[in-house]
Write a structure and sequence with these properties.
This protein is mainly α and 405 residues long. The chain is built from 15 helices and 3 strands. A 3-stranded antiparallel β-sheet has the order 1-2-3. A hairpin with a 2-residue loop joins β1 and β2. The longest helix has 34 residues. It is globular. The relative contact order is 0.14.
Length: 405
């Protein structure tokens, strides 16, 4: 049982493919660094708000434990057994996304209704749906040309319902991330460009409408263009983030020595956690973190290229993209390269739903790496074109032809 609860005791790892082993250890390294940075970033505000500097890190460790159980479940069970439930889990979280919009059910924080309480535990369905959305998109677009027209429309409408539900919370950044990931999976599947172009235009139109009717999104874009025009208002977050990043210098101020986290930088343990990391570890540490992300992306791409099944290729590409792209968007926001969004840094930012979602994505990806050389998914065998070695004719087994004759 230890191999399911404590991954470092997993004795089966030696038989995995090289890519699966690399992804496993890169995930644990990413997670370990994230927990250290979260402890440093959250300690002052946790002590001030709750009288316990370990408040946030202790709660995060609970979510890490839950996420690792899910991670190890996915790693040790065949995908063909898990994907049978994938569309049901997708529908469950889709229903929860829309239930957050029902008055009295959804929990509103900072003007956005993205959470819903389940048995007293607040969860964010738009985060938890990510791994199942990517897997289902890969399954659908892998056999797109074999689907009937009504089936195609069913899945397109369902994917659109997910995006619209998240957008209405409102949560433009997560909508854009999920939409881009689905679009990239469809692109990799070989879908015709005219369909992809039409979808991209529709997505940009939805984003434009959302920005036009949400004043806070307009303020974020204006503060991104010129944060010093309102340094004490809409531009405050970005200015403090840039001060933190710039203060790190080449080698950083040292672990735990950030000054901006001392009640200057807002949301330092979530949306702007990279700013604290950059201040404490400097340019060198930031480059090492980027190297870690690029290494993860490279191994994920190798998994996709080596997979013999199209659905596995699309899974690997989509799962890798949703982790790496989200991390780079968070870094882009902290450095002023992108407008301020509410996207957390995977396995860094505080939040149970984000942590569990990220570890489930990583678990799916490791499992794909383990099965990539002999991939087979229930319901897709007839759509896969595999090269099979020629079968020997019965004549070849005649006793006269036996080498042991």
């Amino acid at each position: 049982m230890l191999q399911y609860l404590i991954p470092i005791f997993d004795t089966s790892v030696s038989s995995w493919s090289a890519e699966a082993r690399w992804l496993r250890w890169l995930t644990f390294l990413w997670l370990f660094i994230g927990l250290l940075v979260l402890f440093s970033a959250s300690f002052p505000i946790a002590h001030a708000e709750y009288g316990d500097g370990f408040y946030y890190i202790k709660r995060q460790l609970i979510w890490v434990a839950a996420g690792l159980i899910g991670f190890n479940f996915l790693v040790h069970f065949p995908i063909r057994s898990v994907v049978r439930l994938n569309h049901w889990l997708l529908l469950l979280f889709l229903a929860l996304i829309w239930l957050t919009l029902v008055p009295g059910l959804g929990n509103t924080v900072n003007g956005a209704t993205r959470w819903i309480s389940i048995f007293g535990v607040p969860v964010q369905p738009s985060e938890l749906i990510k791994p199942f959305l990517v897997v289902q998109a890969a399954r659908v677009f892998a056999k797109w040309h074999a689907l009937s027209l009504p089936t195609r429309w069913f899945w397109l409408v369902l994917f659109a319902s997910v995006l619209v539900g998240i957008l209405l919370q409102p949560n433009l950044s997560t909508t854009a991330l999920c939409g881009m990931t689905i679009w990239l999976v469809a692109l990799a599947s070989g879908l015709r460009m005219k369909y992809l172009a039409t979808t991209a235009i529709a997505g940009l139109g939805m984003a434009a409408i959302s920005i036009s009717i949400n004043a806070y999104q307009q303020r974020r874009i204006m503060s991104f263009l010129d944060p010093w025009s309102d340094p004490q208002g809409s531009g405050y977050q970005l200015i403090q983030s840039l001060l933190a990043v710039g203060s790190g210098g080449i080698l950083g101020s040292g672990f735990g020595m950030s000054q901006q986290k001392l009640f200057y930088l807002p949301i330092q343990y979530s949306d702007f956690i990279f700013s604290v990391y950059a201040e404490e570890f400097g340019l060198v540490g930031s480059w090492l973190l980027l190297f870690l992300l690029m290494a993860y992306a490279t191994v994920g791409l190798r998994v996709a290229l080596k997979a013999r099944s199209l659905v596995y290729q699309l899974m690997a590409m989509g799962l890798t993209s949703i982790l790496i792209v989200q991390a780079f968007i968070n870094i882009g926001v902290a450095t002023g390269f992108l407008p301020t969004t509410g996207l957390p840094f995977p396995m860094f930012s505080y939040g149970g739903s984000s942590m569990i979602s990220s570890l489930l994505v990583a678990g799916f990806l490791v499992r794909v790496a383990r099965e990539s050389r002999h991939a087979k998914v229930v319901g897709f065998d007839r759509f896969q074109q595999k090269q099979r070695s020629p079968q020997p004719s019965p004549k070849s087994f005649h006793p006269q032809n036996s080498p042991y004759r």
